[in-house]
Amino acid sequence: MLYLDDLKIGDRFISETYAITDENIIAFAEHYDPQPFHLSDTAAKESFFGGLAASGWQVGSITMRLIAHSFPVASGIIGGGVDLRWLTPTRPGDILHVETEILEVIPSKSKPDRGVVKIHAKTINQHGETRQTFDSSLLVFRASAGIKGGIFAPS
Amino acid sequence: MLYLDDLKIGDRFISETYAITDENIIAFAEHYDPQPFHLSDTAAKESFFGGLAASGWQVGSITMRLIAHSFPVASGIIGGGVDLRWLTPTRPGDILHVETEILEVIPSKSKPDRGVVKIHAKTINQHGETRQTFDSSLLVFRASAGIKGGIFAPS
Predict the structure, then answer these.
(1) CA–CA separation, A121 and A60 (whole Å)
(2) pTM, whole model, 2 decimals?
(3) Nearest Cα to Cα of residue B65 among A58, A29, A37, A38
(4) In terms of CA atoms, which chain B residue is nearest residue A57?
(5) Across the 155 residues of chain A, what is the mean pLDDT of every consecutive 10-residue run?
(6) Which of A86, A142, B24, B124 is the most exposed place for a label (fewest CB within 10 A)?
(7) Chain B hits for A62, Cβ within 8 Å
Protein backbone atom coordinates (compact mmCIF):
# COMPACT_ATOMS: atom_id res chain seq x y z
CA MET A 1 0.00 0.00 0.00
CA LEU A 2 1.33 3.41 -0.98
CA TYR A 3 1.25 6.70 0.91
CA LEU A 4 2.17 10.20 -0.27
CA ASP A 5 5.85 9.82 0.63
CA ASP A 6 6.15 6.61 -1.40
CA LEU A 7 5.30 8.35 -4.70
CA LYS A 8 7.72 10.22 -6.93
CA ILE A 9 7.72 11.81 -10.37
CA GLY A 10 8.14 9.25 -13.13
CA ASP A 11 6.87 6.23 -11.17
CA ARG A 12 4.84 3.98 -13.47
CA PHE A 13 2.21 1.34 -12.74
CA ILE A 14 1.10 -1.22 -15.33
CA SER A 15 -2.31 -2.86 -14.96
CA GLU A 16 -3.68 -6.25 -15.85
CA THR A 17 -5.86 -6.53 -18.98
CA TYR A 18 -9.59 -6.33 -19.76
CA ALA A 19 -11.13 -7.82 -22.90
CA ILE A 20 -13.70 -5.84 -24.90
CA THR A 21 -16.44 -7.90 -26.55
CA ASP A 22 -19.62 -7.19 -28.52
CA GLU A 23 -21.51 -8.47 -25.48
CA ASN A 24 -19.94 -6.18 -22.89
CA ILE A 25 -20.13 -3.16 -25.25
CA ILE A 26 -23.87 -3.72 -25.77
CA ALA A 27 -24.62 -4.52 -22.10
CA PHE A 28 -22.94 -1.32 -20.91
CA ALA A 29 -24.60 0.79 -23.61
CA GLU A 30 -28.10 -0.55 -22.97
CA HIS A 31 -28.02 0.98 -19.52
CA TYR A 32 -25.66 3.97 -19.77
CA ASP A 33 -25.24 5.05 -23.39
CA PRO A 34 -28.14 3.76 -25.50
CA GLN A 35 -27.10 5.03 -28.91
CA PRO A 36 -27.24 2.86 -32.06
CA PHE A 37 -23.46 2.92 -32.65
CA HIS A 38 -22.93 1.31 -29.21
CA LEU A 39 -25.85 -1.15 -29.48
CA SER A 40 -25.77 -2.74 -32.93
CA ASP A 41 -23.02 -3.37 -35.44
CA THR A 42 -25.58 -3.04 -38.26
CA ALA A 43 -26.81 0.36 -37.07
CA ALA A 44 -23.23 1.46 -36.32
CA LYS A 45 -22.28 0.94 -39.98
CA GLU A 46 -24.52 3.93 -40.92
CA SER A 47 -22.98 6.07 -38.19
CA PHE A 48 -19.82 8.14 -37.81
CA PHE A 49 -18.09 5.12 -36.22
CA GLY A 50 -18.63 2.78 -39.19
CA GLY A 51 -19.02 -0.24 -36.89
CA LEU A 52 -19.71 -1.13 -33.29
CA ALA A 53 -17.71 1.03 -30.83
CA ALA A 54 -17.60 0.98 -27.04
CA SER A 55 -19.05 3.90 -25.12
CA GLY A 56 -16.29 6.19 -23.88
CA TRP A 57 -17.89 5.83 -20.43
CA GLN A 58 -17.31 2.10 -20.55
CA VAL A 59 -13.65 2.73 -21.41
CA GLY A 60 -13.36 5.27 -18.59
CA SER A 61 -15.01 2.94 -16.07
CA ILE A 62 -12.82 -0.02 -17.08
CA THR A 63 -9.78 2.26 -16.77
CA MET A 64 -10.81 3.07 -13.21
CA ARG A 65 -11.06 -0.65 -12.41
CA LEU A 66 -7.61 -1.32 -13.86
CA ILE A 67 -6.06 1.63 -12.00
CA ALA A 68 -7.69 0.59 -8.70
CA HIS A 69 -6.08 -2.84 -9.03
CA SER A 70 -2.62 -1.66 -10.17
CA PHE A 71 -1.97 1.56 -8.22
CA PRO A 72 -2.49 0.61 -4.57
CA VAL A 73 -2.82 3.94 -2.76
CA ALA A 74 -3.63 3.23 0.89
CA SER A 75 -6.24 5.97 1.17
CA GLY A 76 -7.81 5.04 -2.17
CA ILE A 77 -7.97 6.72 -5.57
CA ILE A 78 -9.71 10.01 -4.75
CA GLY A 79 -9.95 12.51 -7.60
CA GLY A 80 -11.83 15.78 -7.79
CA GLY A 81 -12.16 15.44 -11.54
CA VAL A 82 -10.66 14.02 -14.69
CA ASP A 83 -9.80 15.14 -18.18
CA LEU A 84 -10.52 12.26 -20.59
CA ARG A 85 -9.61 12.13 -24.29
CA TRP A 86 -10.85 9.34 -26.52
CA LEU A 87 -8.21 9.24 -29.25
CA THR A 88 -9.54 6.28 -31.24
CA PRO A 89 -12.73 4.16 -30.93
CA THR A 90 -12.52 1.10 -28.70
CA ARG A 91 -13.66 -1.97 -30.66
CA PRO A 92 -14.74 -5.56 -29.98
CA GLY A 93 -11.58 -7.67 -29.70
CA ASP A 94 -9.54 -4.97 -27.97
CA ILE A 95 -7.56 -6.20 -24.97
CA LEU A 96 -7.00 -3.09 -22.88
CA HIS A 97 -4.43 -2.32 -20.22
CA VAL A 98 -3.58 0.92 -18.44
CA GLU A 99 -0.21 2.56 -17.85
CA THR A 100 -0.31 5.15 -15.07
CA GLU A 101 2.52 7.64 -14.58
CA ILE A 102 3.13 10.12 -11.76
CA LEU A 103 3.59 13.63 -13.18
CA GLU A 104 3.78 15.71 -9.99
CA VAL A 105 3.73 15.25 -6.20
CA ILE A 106 2.65 18.41 -4.35
CA PRO A 107 2.56 18.27 -0.52
CA SER A 108 -0.14 20.49 0.97
CA LYS A 109 1.16 23.64 2.63
CA SER A 110 -1.78 23.99 5.00
CA LYS A 111 -2.53 20.32 5.79
CA PRO A 112 0.64 18.31 6.57
CA ASP A 113 -1.12 14.92 6.40
CA ARG A 114 -1.84 15.06 2.67
CA GLY A 115 -0.90 16.23 -0.82
CA VAL A 116 -1.96 16.25 -4.46
CA VAL A 117 -0.55 13.76 -6.97
CA LYS A 118 -1.03 14.43 -10.68
CA ILE A 119 -1.30 11.32 -12.82
CA HIS A 120 -1.48 10.62 -16.53
CA ALA A 121 -2.93 7.25 -17.53
CA LYS A 122 -3.05 5.75 -21.01
CA THR A 123 -5.51 3.00 -21.93
CA ILE A 124 -3.85 0.94 -24.66
CA ASN A 125 -4.88 -2.12 -26.66
CA GLN A 126 -2.85 -5.21 -27.56
CA HIS A 127 -1.53 -3.54 -30.74
CA GLY A 128 -0.14 -0.55 -28.85
CA GLU A 129 -2.94 1.79 -29.97
CA THR A 130 -3.86 4.36 -27.30
CA ARG A 131 -7.65 4.43 -26.99
CA GLN A 132 -7.90 6.95 -24.16
CA THR A 133 -5.81 9.32 -22.08
CA PHE A 134 -6.81 10.22 -18.53
CA ASP A 135 -5.38 13.14 -16.52
CA SER A 136 -6.35 13.65 -12.91
CA SER A 137 -5.19 15.25 -9.67
CA LEU A 138 -5.55 12.85 -6.75
CA LEU A 139 -5.77 13.59 -3.05
CA VAL A 140 -3.22 11.29 -1.35
CA PHE A 141 -2.63 11.00 2.39
CA ARG A 142 0.45 10.33 4.50
CA ALA A 143 0.43 7.22 6.69
CA SER A 144 0.01 9.44 9.77
CA ALA A 145 -3.46 10.51 8.60
CA GLY A 146 -4.86 7.03 9.27
CA ILE A 147 -7.29 7.27 6.33
CA LYS A 148 -8.31 4.01 4.63
CA GLY A 149 -9.93 3.39 1.29
CA GLY A 150 -7.61 1.58 -1.16
CA ILE A 151 -8.68 -1.64 -2.75
CA PHE A 152 -6.39 -3.79 -0.59
CA ALA A 153 -7.20 -2.06 2.69
CA PRO A 154 -8.77 -4.24 5.35
CA SER A 155 -12.36 -3.12 5.86
CA MET B 1 -34.11 15.17 -33.85
CA LEU B 2 -31.58 17.99 -33.94
CA TYR B 3 -28.95 18.86 -36.53
CA LEU B 4 -26.14 21.43 -36.38
CA ASP B 5 -28.32 24.25 -37.72
CA ASP B 6 -30.96 23.65 -35.02
CA LEU B 7 -28.54 24.44 -32.16
CA LYS B 8 -27.70 27.89 -30.83
CA ILE B 9 -25.81 29.38 -27.91
CA GLY B 10 -27.83 29.34 -24.70
CA ASP B 11 -30.18 26.49 -25.67
CA ARG B 12 -30.87 24.31 -22.63
CA PHE B 13 -32.05 20.72 -22.28
CA ILE B 14 -33.38 19.27 -19.01
CA SER B 15 -33.28 15.51 -18.47
CA GLU B 16 -35.47 13.09 -16.60
CA THR B 17 -34.25 11.83 -13.22
CA TYR B 18 -32.22 8.86 -11.96
CA ALA B 19 -32.34 7.63 -8.36
CA ILE B 20 -29.12 6.70 -6.54
CA THR B 21 -29.41 3.83 -4.06
CA ASP B 22 -27.02 1.83 -1.86
CA GLU B 23 -27.69 -1.09 -4.19
CA ASN B 24 -26.80 0.64 -7.45
CA ILE B 25 -23.73 2.31 -5.90
CA ILE B 26 -22.40 -1.06 -4.72
CA ALA B 27 -23.31 -2.94 -7.92
CA PHE B 28 -21.46 -0.40 -10.09
CA ALA B 29 -18.45 -0.29 -7.76
CA GLU B 30 -18.09 -4.08 -7.53
CA HIS B 31 -17.30 -4.18 -11.23
CA TYR B 32 -15.76 -0.81 -12.05
CA ASP B 33 -14.46 0.91 -8.90
CA PRO B 34 -13.92 -1.68 -6.14
CA GLN B 35 -12.79 0.59 -3.31
CA PRO B 36 -14.17 0.31 0.24
CA PHE B 37 -15.80 3.78 0.24
CA HIS B 38 -17.94 2.72 -2.76
CA LEU B 39 -18.68 -0.80 -1.47
CA SER B 40 -19.61 -0.59 2.21
CA ASP B 41 -21.08 2.15 4.35
CA THR B 42 -19.20 0.75 7.36
CA ALA B 43 -15.82 0.84 5.59
CA ALA B 44 -16.65 4.25 4.07
CA LYS B 45 -16.99 5.75 7.55
CA GLU B 46 -13.21 5.28 8.07
CA SER B 47 -12.44 6.89 4.71
CA PHE B 48 -12.17 10.42 3.38
CA PHE B 49 -15.85 10.26 2.33
CA GLY B 50 -17.19 9.51 5.82
CA GLY B 51 -19.99 7.35 4.41
CA LEU B 52 -20.99 5.48 1.26
CA ALA B 53 -20.39 7.56 -1.91
CA ALA B 54 -21.04 6.72 -5.55
CA SER B 55 -18.09 6.23 -7.88
CA GLY B 56 -17.57 9.31 -10.04
CA TRP B 57 -17.64 6.93 -13.00
CA GLN B 58 -21.16 5.87 -12.08
CA VAL B 59 -22.18 9.55 -11.95
CA GLY B 60 -20.52 10.20 -15.32
CA SER B 61 -22.15 7.17 -16.92
CA ILE B 62 -25.61 8.07 -15.56
CA THR B 63 -25.07 11.61 -16.86
CA MET B 64 -24.41 10.18 -20.32
CA ARG B 65 -27.67 8.20 -20.16
CA LEU B 66 -29.63 11.27 -19.10
CA ILE B 67 -28.06 13.44 -21.83
CA ALA B 68 -28.69 10.79 -24.51
CA HIS B 69 -32.40 10.81 -23.60
CA SER B 70 -32.81 14.61 -23.30
CA PHE B 71 -30.58 16.07 -26.03
CA PRO B 72 -31.70 14.33 -29.23
CA VAL B 73 -28.91 15.02 -31.72
CA ALA B 74 -29.70 13.13 -34.95
CA SER B 75 -26.14 11.94 -35.51
CA GLY B 76 -25.73 11.01 -31.82
CA ILE B 77 -23.68 12.38 -28.94
CA ILE B 78 -20.12 12.08 -30.28
CA GLY B 79 -17.40 13.61 -28.11
CA GLY B 80 -13.63 13.39 -28.43
CA GLY B 81 -13.24 13.88 -24.71
CA VAL B 82 -14.72 15.33 -21.57
CA ASP B 83 -13.62 17.41 -18.61
CA LEU B 84 -15.43 16.13 -15.49
CA ARG B 85 -15.41 17.77 -12.07
CA TRP B 86 -16.95 16.04 -9.04
CA LEU B 87 -17.86 18.96 -6.79
CA THR B 88 -19.54 17.01 -3.97
CA PRO B 89 -19.95 13.26 -3.30
CA THR B 90 -23.05 11.60 -4.74
CA ARG B 91 -24.91 9.77 -1.96
CA PRO B 92 -27.64 7.13 -1.56
CA GLY B 93 -31.00 8.93 -1.80
CA ASP B 94 -29.84 11.45 -4.41
CA ILE B 95 -32.28 11.92 -7.29
CA LEU B 96 -30.13 13.23 -10.12
CA HIS B 97 -31.05 15.16 -13.24
CA VAL B 98 -28.88 16.85 -15.86
CA GLU B 99 -29.10 20.35 -17.31
CA THR B 100 -27.20 20.69 -20.60
CA GLU B 101 -26.42 24.10 -22.08
CA ILE B 102 -24.96 25.01 -25.47
CA LEU B 103 -21.89 27.25 -25.04
CA GLU B 104 -20.65 27.51 -28.63
CA VAL B 105 -21.57 26.36 -32.15
CA ILE B 106 -18.59 26.32 -34.53
CA PRO B 107 -19.23 25.24 -38.15
CA SER B 108 -16.26 23.46 -39.71
CA LYS B 109 -14.38 25.55 -42.27
CA SER B 110 -13.04 22.55 -44.18
CA LYS B 111 -16.02 20.14 -43.95
CA PRO B 112 -19.36 21.87 -44.68
CA ASP B 113 -21.49 18.93 -43.44
CA ARG B 114 -20.46 19.27 -39.78
CA GLY B 115 -19.36 21.43 -36.86
CA VAL B 116 -18.32 21.40 -33.22
CA VAL B 117 -20.78 22.18 -30.42
CA LYS B 118 -19.41 22.95 -26.96
CA ILE B 119 -21.69 21.91 -24.10
CA HIS B 120 -21.67 22.35 -20.33
CA ALA B 121 -23.79 19.89 -18.35
CA LYS B 122 -24.54 20.00 -14.64
CA THR B 123 -25.65 16.90 -12.72
CA ILE B 124 -27.83 18.13 -9.86
CA ASN B 125 -29.72 16.42 -7.03
CA GLN B 126 -33.25 17.09 -5.73
CA HIS B 127 -31.92 19.72 -3.29
CA GLY B 128 -30.24 21.76 -6.01
CA GLU B 129 -26.72 20.57 -5.11
CA THR B 130 -24.45 20.21 -8.13
CA ARG B 131 -22.67 16.87 -7.90
CA GLN B 132 -20.76 17.02 -11.18
CA THR B 133 -19.96 19.35 -14.06
CA PHE B 134 -19.25 18.01 -17.54
CA ASP B 135 -17.65 20.01 -20.38
CA SER B 136 -17.29 18.51 -23.82
CA SER B 137 -16.93 19.42 -27.48
CA LEU B 138 -19.28 17.38 -29.65
CA LEU B 139 -19.08 16.60 -33.35
CA VAL B 140 -22.52 17.44 -34.80
CA PHE B 141 -23.60 16.93 -38.41
CA ARG B 142 -25.93 18.82 -40.72
CA ALA B 143 -28.95 16.95 -42.07
CA SER B 144 -27.27 16.80 -45.50
CA ALA B 145 -24.55 14.49 -44.13
CA GLY B 146 -27.03 11.63 -43.72
CA ILE B 147 -25.28 10.33 -40.60
CA LYS B 148 -27.40 8.46 -38.03
CA GLY B 149 -26.69 7.60 -34.43
CA GLY B 150 -28.98 9.45 -32.00
CA ILE B 151 -31.06 7.52 -29.54
CA PHE B 152 -34.34 8.08 -31.42
CA ALA B 153 -32.92 7.32 -34.88
CA PRO B 154 -34.46 4.37 -36.69
CA SER B 155 -31.88 1.63 -36.88
Answers:
(1) 11
(2) 0.96
(3) A29
(4) B61
(5) 96 98 98 96 93 98 97 95 98 98 98 97 98 98 91 52
(6) B24
(7) 32
